[in-house]
Amino acid sequence: MLCNLNIKDLAVVESLSLELALGLTVLTGETGAGKSILLTALGLALGERADSGLIRPGASRAEINLEFSVADARDARLWLEENELSDDEEVCLIRRVVSQDGRSRAFINNRPATLQSLQELASMLVEIHGQHAHLRLLDGDEQRRLLDESAGNKTLLEKLAGIFRHWRSVRDELDANSKTIERGTAREELLRYQIEEMEQHGVEALDYDLLSEEQTLQANMEKILAAGQTQLEQLYDDEKCSVNALLAQAIHAMADIGHIAPDFSEIETLLTEAQIQVKEAVGELRRRMEKMEADPKRLAWVDEKLGELHRLARKHHVAPRDLRQHVENLRTELGSIELGTEKNAQLRQEMEKLEREYRELAVQLSKSRLEGGRKLEAQISSVIRELGMPQGQFIIETTPAQSNLPTLFGNDRIEFLVSANPGLPPRPLGKVASGGELSRISLAIQVAATDAKTTPTLVFDEVDSGIGGGVAEIVGQKLRLLGKDRQIFCVTHLHQVAALGHQHLLVEKTIDKTSTKTQVRKLAPNQRKHEIARMLGGVRITEQTLAHAEEMLAASGSSLDI
Question: What global pTM score does this model have?
Answer without folding.
Answer: 0.63
